Amino acid sequence: LIFDPGGSGSHVVSVLGFTLNTDEWHPQAGPAYLSGQPNDESSSAWVDHLVIHDDVLGPYYCVSRAGLFDTGGARSRLKPKAVIALLPAKVELSPVQAESIAREAFREFKRDFTGAKIKGREPWWGLLFKDDGRRVYRTTLARRDDYIAGLKAGPFARGGAMRAALVIAAVEARLPEQFWLVEITLPQLFVGNRAGVAELLISVDSIADETPSAQVVGLRFPSWIGVAVAPAQFTVWPFPVHRHRRLQTLGYHRNGW
Question: Residue 142: which of 216, 253, 234 has the closest Cα?
Fold first, then answer.
């Protein structure tokens, strides 16, 4: 974050992470009480502080979300004037772009899946695809090895571990080295259980095809999982995870969830 407090020049602080307040009222109150609010929400709506390092004052300070947008009085000079975000090499899409693509792709899949008869799909399919239902999207840059390790952790339906191992091996062989992992869940599961219902894996590459599903390299919904074999074309397998599962904590996120 770059601040311009006045005086001799700007001041830069490093952002190390963030904190979440799952009791925050606004993310759920907006759609409940205000007309015209979207049903889809980003998990970032529950972020209440950024954890920063200030080379003058010291490490591990917290900057409140409200403070980032404070425009009144002298403290308005402590509102960031610019943000510099870093991404690993070969990542062409930002997390905001990836999450937007995932939302549009989900709407495509929702139209395609309506009325489909899939064993083990209920009740979570009905809750996830409910027309007036609310969904939360959580986006993280994932490495293939970390994602596969999360899949192997289950939990699987009774007697499904062997089948899951075969399917996971097939998925692993077809996934790229890194991608945006967009977990899709319900507000109650996000704040109460820290659990997700479905996942869309979004390519880190920017492609010319404007069809959102063409950017999807993998997907998992209750009872099945799939990978892209061509833009917007998928190979899918039955998968013995029929319900919500814990949100993935990736290998390089040791202190967060």
Answer: 253
Residue 172 exposed, middle or buried by CB count within 10 Å (0-12, 13-18, 19+): middle
Measure the CA–CA gap between 30 and 107, rounded to whole angstroms.
Answer: 21
Tell me the C-alpha distance between 96 and 87, whole Å: 12
Q: What is the mean pLDDT of residues 12-30?
A: 88
Q: What secondary structure does DSSP assign to 37-106, as a single string?
A: --SEEEGGGGEEEEEEEETTTEEEEEEEHHHHT--SSGGGGGS-SB------TT--S-HHHHHHHHHHHH
Which residue matches tokens 């969904």? 135
Distance, CA of 234 to CA of 228 (rounded, Å): 4
**163, 235 contact by CB (below 8 A):** no
**Residue 183 to residues 82, 131, 220: CA-CA distances in angstroms?**
29, 19, 9
Q: What is the three-state SS of 140-203?
A: EEEEHHHHHHHHHCCCCCCCCHHHHHHHHHHHHHHCCCEEEEEEEECHHHHHHCCEECEEEEEC
CA 146 from centroid of its chain's CA atoms = 15
Q: Is 7 helix (H, G, I), strand (E, B) or coil?
A: coil
Whether residue 128 has pLDDT greater than 90 = no
Q: Are 115 and 109 in contact (CB under 8 A)?
A: no
Neighbours of 116 (CB within 10 A): 9
Q: Are 250 and 142 in contact (CB under 8 A)?
A: yes
- The tokens describing 228, both together, are 């892209």
Per-residue pLDDT, 100: 94
pLDDT in tens, 28-86: 888 778 877 778 899 999 999 999 999 999 999 998 887 777 666 666 677 888 888 88
